[in-house]
User: What shape does this take?
Amino acid sequence: SSKPPRDASDRTSPARLTARERAVTLLPMMSDAVRFDYQSARAEGDVVVRRGLLDLAARLGINSLGSDAARYGLALTLGSGEVTPLELTAAYAAFANGGERVYPYAVMSIVDAAGRPLPIGTLGAQPRRAVLSPQVAYLISDILADPYARMRAFGTTSPLTIDRPAAVKTGTTSDWRDNWTVGYTPDRVVGVWVGNPDGSPMRGVSGITGAAPLWHEVMLAAHRNLPVRSFPQPAGIVELTICAASGLLPAPACPSHPPPLLQLRGLCGIVGWHDRSEERRVGKECRSRWSPYH
Assistant: This one.
């Protein structure tokens, strides 16, 4: 189940977002997987956005939400629709695999009494299919794997920290009935749900205190004897220095007191500017290197 969370780390009001987080808010909208007709969006209101979210969820393998956009409000972006743990974990696996959808399966092989392999058809592994651009998948992973972003809510030694880079997210329903932690590395993805079998509320158990410790131990076991790997950065990612105070590109208006600057990874076309001349300079550089709209 995934509903509006209560964890402090899950609250993403603009006042709590860092400059880096604000800058990548629009990135999912730039994916090749979902294209919005903004003229129609103005005429149809948020229904178009909800349809786009359901379409993207289905592409990632989440089918529990159905296809009726009228059932949901914009709170769907926060998790107001219920999904299964397997669907949610498989959707996160697409981020770990450069935007390619992963189809979960439980049967590795079938053999007869003589040990000869038998065809298993759709019970086994299925070919992967690209549903997100590699750039969007990488940026989502980069955000979720940022240990400094977690420190404000979870400190430096939370269960979300393992012995290698890992992208991870917690969630808690508002009535304490469900909590979960889903996270991944380039090698493994693990999803953990914690709750009562009868659906009754728990007593103040959140994603960080309930599901996260289990996720931590399973991830350590799943990566035993595996080399440490970072998320590979695809072509088309632009790295820029931004003003820490505003999240915009640095200019004379940027405060001079330390630390005045931050490093930002992102796609072209999503960063603001203190002055138009800087916008023209960086915009030209972006177009000459890569554009998500090509």
